[in-house]
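Lecture notes, part 5. Sequence design as translation. It can be helpful to think of inverse folding as translation between two languages: the language of shapes and the language of residues. The source text, in structure tokens, appears below.
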């Protein structure tokens, strides 16, 4: 047996994976976006399919990634579209992996026509909070709309600051979100965004904390799926 053989441990399982960055429109030609490449979520979706799962990838905007083979891909743009698609496909799923970079806010109004430069100084952009999709999934499971056995995975890109370390912020976020696993990427100094490798930790709701050593996103994906597989009943 080859040591790099992919286990077929997810046969019969249904996964929903979100990936990429949402775009929140301001007018017909402009949006608020983020730098997510989608690479981590795509790698997880691809590997879950290789391990035998039936996978729906809810894909927002990426750095031009091609749809992975043997994966159902649902393309979306805004956070609200992503929320609707994830919730639709989460019903009946064994695991939902929220690797998308969802915009926290959207412009409160979307101009029907292109905003003109005009003579005056520009207006400020009023923002409205988007729904928290991950927290909504946890709530839906609590309410019985999702099966109690559904494994819910969140991602967090964190930086440390004067008030706390990456891990302290991540543990607080895991508790706040109520998900089962939180994949933590340490960002800053050019890490995690727009690169092929990243590093961090895998935090579980039971308090366990596994370092994800520096490596490829493919390796990170296999670690994440190993942890999810361990929680599937
Ligand atoms: N997420 C989500 N819906 C949102 C925002 C985030 O589902 N509106 C998900 C992301 O996909 C990710 C997790 O929540 O899996 C953590 O995202 P993050 O931005 O780190 O968390 P926030 O609660 O938005 O906190 P912060 O203030 O640090 O941005
Ligand atoms: Ca956020």
């Amino acid at each position: 047996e080859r040591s790099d053989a992919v286990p077929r441990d997810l046969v019969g399982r249904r996964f929903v994976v979100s990936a990429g960055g949402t775009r929140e429109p301001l007018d017909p030609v402009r949006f608020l976006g983020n730098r997510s490449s989608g690479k981590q979520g795509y790698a997880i979706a691809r590997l879950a399919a290789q391990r035998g799962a039936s996978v729906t990838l809810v894909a927002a905007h990426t750095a031009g990634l091609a749809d992975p083979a043997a994966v159902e891909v649902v393309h979306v743009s805004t956070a609200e579209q992503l929320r609707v698609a994830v919730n639709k496909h989460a019903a009946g799923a064994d695991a939902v992996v929220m690797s998308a970079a969802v915009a926290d806010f959207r412009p409160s109004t979307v101009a029907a026509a292109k905003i003109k430069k005009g003579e005056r100084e520009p207006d400020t952009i009023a923002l409205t909070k988007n729904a928290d999709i991950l927290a909504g999934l946890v709530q839906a499971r609590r309410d019985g709309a999702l099966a109690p056995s559904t494994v819910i995975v969140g991602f967090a890109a964190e930086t440390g600051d004067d008030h706390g370390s990456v891990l302290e912020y991540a543990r607080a976020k895991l508790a706040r979100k109520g998900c089962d696993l939180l994949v933590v990427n340490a960002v800053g100094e050019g890490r995690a965004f727009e690169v092929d490798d990243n590093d961090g930790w895998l935090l579980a709701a039971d308090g366990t904390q596994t370092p994800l050593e520096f490596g490829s996103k493919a390796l990170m994906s296999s670690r994440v799926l190993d942890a999810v597989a361990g929680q599937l009943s």
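The translated text above is only one of many valid answers, since several sequences can fold into similar shapes. The mean pLDDT is 92.
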